[in-house]
Amino acid sequence: GAVVSQHPSWVICKSGTSVKIECRSLDFQATTMFWYRQFPKQSLMLMATSNEGSKATYEQGVEKDKFLINHASLTLSTLTVTSAHPEDSSFYICSAATGYYEQYFGPGTRLTVT
Amino acid sequence: QKEVEQNSGPLSVPEGAIASLNCTYSDRGSQSFFWYRQYSGKSPELIMSIYSNGDKEDGRFTAQLNKASQYVSLLIRDSQPSDSATYLCAVQGAQKLVFGQGTRLTINP
């Protein structure tokens, strides 16, 4: 149980384009989903928290207009990186929780912006 | 002071020995604590959760919690090379988890 999928697992895009990453909870309903970013050899950095049907809560320093989050259903959240630049290249990981307690992570999406 | 602190390591342990990973946290009101394992290039995997003072055992893993000392630990018995990974301590904060920097563990055959 508690399986979370992400798609795509890796993506390469050109600078200035937008990329959408999907996060799905496969065997449970997630009231809350979280989006993290991780740079090499660094710990997880929480970007935003999203609850189904409401606007995401962004962490300080994360541009909400650049990282668009939609949590349309209890099993699906999407992160769109708009006008991506090379500095946005990173490992993006979502997690899903039935509350704010145990979080189950997706396998991650490796984004490379050229 | 960081909210969740871990020794970044690397911690090197011989195969078959006990690996001991430690974590301290600053929010005395925290109630939920988690250990995640992260292999290089992969996402974190939940391996233990603990909510009450004392020990919680699951197979070769034992989590220990001491709320008075604001201290959480993870013991791995009979360490295997496959246990080599970064271990992240996470503490429940206000509507989110607060992660430590992680301890890199290497099990030497």
* Tertiary shape of chain B: globular
- Calculate the terminal CA-CA distance of chain A, rounded to whole Å: 37 Å
Order of helices and strands of chain B: EEEEEEEEEEE
Oligomer classification: heterodimer
Terminal-residue CA separation of chain B: 36 Å
**Low-pLDDT residue spans of chain B:** none
Question: Level of helix content of chain A?
Answer: under 10%
Tell me which protein chains meet in the greatest interface and how many residues each side has: A-B, 18 and 19 residues
The helix count of chain A comes to 0
Could you write a compact summary of the structure shown?
The complex is a heterodimer of chains A (114) and B (109). By secondary structure, chain A is mainly β.
Structural commentary:
The complex is a heterodimer of chains A (114) and B (109). By secondary structure, chain A is an all-beta fold. Chain A has no helices and eleven strands. Chain A has strands at 4-7, 10-13, 19-25, 32-38, 45-51, 57-58, 67-73, 76-81, 90-97, 104-105, 109-113. In chain A, the strands form two sheets. In chain A, strands 2, 4, 5, 6, 9, 10 and 11 form a seven-stranded mixed sheet that branches. A four-stranded antiparallel sheet of chain A has the order 1-3-8-7, with no helix packed on it. Chain A is globular. In chain B, the strands form two sheets. In chain B, strands 2, 4, 5, 9, 10 and 11 form a six-stranded mixed sheet that branches. In chain B, strands 1-3-8-7-6 form a five-stranded antiparallel sheet, with no helix packed on it. Chain B is globular, with a radius of gyration of 13 Å. With 109 residues, chain B is mainly beta. Chain B contains no helices and eleven strands. Chains A and B meet through strand 10 of A and strand 5 and strand 9 of B.
